[in-house]
């Protein structure tokens, strides 16, 4: 499903971010026909079918491709920036309202919540600069089963330095040992220090779910195979938003929903839909190798 929307400008940034500015654009949503139902029987019966539609919204303000900067998505909750417009929020609301809680919040007084937080269905990690009021708001809004932990870490843009699903977390090689232990405990995952295409910001250059992962387009086949073996999910090298290699900042994904910029091309969408298994019969083996090669050659 593709939806055009906009949200308010933000001049906030994090020094660890590997881009210089936020592009003006809209965003796109891909989803299975039905998210998991709270009822296990209904969840098993839910069909996986890709939906693609477009809607034009006449709103004022700027719109951005960096969906992963202003939102966080897991299988048990979604966080949306407090500064996002109603159009941005409504896309998450339409797909997730009756499935998982959608929490509007700031982190450390900023809107860039997707780059400051990292989490999965079991837990949420926030930087030590998160205020007591913000922390209490999250605890009041998220399910009781979700553990929330403030981390005192020099590399405080946690969304840039951690890439996690419900089983494994890849982290920046220079994170503190205590931080690594907290990640393992709160998220309930195995933790590995890794790079992606020789980049240490694993959360910026990877987007990960329990179904698959998208990594920096220059990631070698050997590295893809090694990471895939480590994560036990299929991985594909690709991009979002017409050639952006910062895939973690350009999209969010869980096991049934992906949101990315409307600048994302048909070729990029096909790769995303396939590797995250969002459509009927779509698995990484169905991604045409020539199509991937053409995408990389065109953009890089």
From TrEMBL:
InterPro entries, alphabetized: eIF6 (IPR002769)
PTM field: Phosphorylation at Ser-228 and Ser-229 promotes nuclear export.
Pfam families, per database record: eIF-6 (PF01912)
Family membership noted in the UniProt record: Belongs to the eIF-6 family.
Chain's role: Binds to the 60S ribosomal subunit and prevents its association with the 40S ribosomal subunit to form the 80S initiation complex in the cytoplasm. Is also involved in ribosome biogenesis. Associates with pre-60S subunits in the nucleus and is involved in its nuclear export.
Swiss-Prot/TrEMBL GO biological process terms: assembly of large subunit precursor of preribosome; cytosolic ribosome assembly; maturation of 5.8S rRNA from tricistronic rRNA transcript (SSU-rRNA, 5.8S rRNA, LSU-rRNA); maturation of LSU-rRNA from tricistronic rRNA transcript (SSU-rRNA, 5.8S rRNA, LSU-rRNA); ribosomal subunit export from nucleus
Name this polypeptide is given: Eukaryotic translation initiation factor 6
UniProt KW keywords: Cytoplasm, Initiation factor, Nucleus, Phosphoprotein, Protein biosynthesis, Ribosome biogenesis
Predominant localisation class: cytoplasm
Post-translational modification Phosphoserine, affected residues: 228-229
Cellular component GO terms held in the UniProt record: cytoplasm; nucleolus; preribosome, large subunit precursor
Subunit structure: Monomer. Associates with the 60S ribosomal subunit.
Coiled-coil zones: none
Localisation: Cytoplasm; Nucleus, Nucleolus
HAMAP family the UniProt entry points to: eIF_6 (MF_00032)
A single MF term (Gene Ontology): ribosomal large subunit binding
């Amino acid at each position: 499903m593709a939806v055009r929307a906009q949200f308010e400008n933000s001049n906030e940034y994090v020094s660890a971010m590997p881009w210089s500015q936020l592009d003006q654009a809209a965003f796109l949503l891909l989803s299975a026909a039905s998210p998991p139902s709270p009822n296990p029987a209904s969840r098993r019966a839910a069909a996986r079918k890709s939906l693609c539609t477009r809607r034009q919204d006449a709103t004022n303000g700027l719109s951005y491709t960096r969906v992963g900067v202003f939102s966080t998505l897991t299988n048990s909750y979604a966080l949306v920036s407090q500064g996002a417009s109603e159009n941005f929020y409504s896309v998450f609301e339409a797909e997730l309202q009756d499935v998982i809680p959608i929490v509007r919040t700031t982190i450390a007084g900023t809107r860039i919540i997707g780059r400051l937080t990292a989490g999965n269905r079991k837990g949420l990690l926030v930087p030590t600069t998160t205020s007591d009021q913000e922390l209490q708001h999250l605890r009041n809004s998220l399910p009781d089963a979700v553990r929330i932990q403030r981390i005192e870490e020099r590399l405080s843009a946690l969304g840039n330095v951690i890439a996690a699903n419900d089983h494994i977390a890849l982290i920046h090689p220079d994170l503190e040992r205590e931080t690594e232990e907290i990640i393992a405990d709160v998220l309930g995952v195995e933790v590995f220090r890794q790079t992606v295409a020789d980049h240490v910001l694993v959360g910026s250059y990877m987007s990960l779910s329990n179904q698959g992962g998208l990594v920096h387009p220059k990631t070698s086949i050997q590295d893809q195979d090694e990471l895939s073996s480590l994560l036990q999910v299929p991985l594909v090298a690709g991009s979002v938003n017409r050639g952006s290699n910062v895939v973690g900042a350009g999209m969010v994904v869980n096991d049934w929903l992906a949101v990315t910029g409307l600048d994302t091309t048909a070729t990029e969408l096909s790769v995303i839909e396939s590797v995250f298994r969002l459509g009927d019969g779509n698995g990484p083996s169905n991604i045409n190798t020539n199509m991937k090669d053409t995408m990389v050659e065109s953009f890089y």
